[in-house]
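Contributing new records

If you add data, match the layout below exactly. Sequence lines come first and carry their own label; structure lines follow with theirs. Keep one chain per record. Anything else will be rejected by the validation script.
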Amino acid sequence: MALQTSVMLVLGGGFFAFTNLALPAIRHIGVLQSRTGVDINSVALAEPESDKRALPEIRRENELLKESISRKLATFPDTQKWSVYMYDLNGGGTVNINSGKAMAAGSVYKLFLLEALESKLPYDKWQYTWMDDGKNISDCVFEMLRSSDSACAEGLGDYIGWNYIDGINHRDGFKDTRMTKDEGRETTVADAGELLIRLKKGQILSDNARRFVFDAMYQQINLKGIMAGCGNCRAADKIGIMDDVANDVGIVTHGGHSYVLAVMSQGGNLKQIAELTRFIEAQRNP
């Protein structure tokens, strides 16, 4: 099945003509959930433009917060395994708890498709590049982030090429993230957190693409996990659940202050992630 892009040309008198350009084939990606026609030029763009100034990178371990979170995790059943990564986007403080341990990614892997996709197909062509079911790539990206549409993500991964995706991620330093692993896709909270840091700071994706991605994440339909625990906040997050895996990675914002929080678990659940988020909020804002 051919993947096509329609290019719109403005002609005199306000008429339009379309030319179809063939692109590499993409397998059938299934039916998207109930959203179509995402206009990449008129989305809410709730995320502001990134600050592109070259600011010095400050990272220092927040030992007190790390110790508090570790004590909280110790109250969960000892049959569960947890990894936590935090980064204060304003102050630079970090928390690393098993942050380099590779774990099942769940739907968090969808975040790691984005840069490879834009490197293969520029963002301004997403809206005009169509799937065989009549949906375009911008719709597909929006729904795989907002409603975790897995058929879309699988189709996009096949189109981009899973080995190519791994190559882009490893080039960027995400060496513990693998999309082609036989036992299942995996990543670490450190890799997921670093990806969100770079996305927030405008270091990956074009600015319009990153704002479009944030627009989808701000409209996440699963309001459990981080979103349920952070209270009066704005959160742009991506949840990943399957079997005994519960993961949530995102950016939490209160006014002008933001931090990255990535939590992954084996045997845990989103209710516990919400509980952990509430605990972290209480520690940060006593």
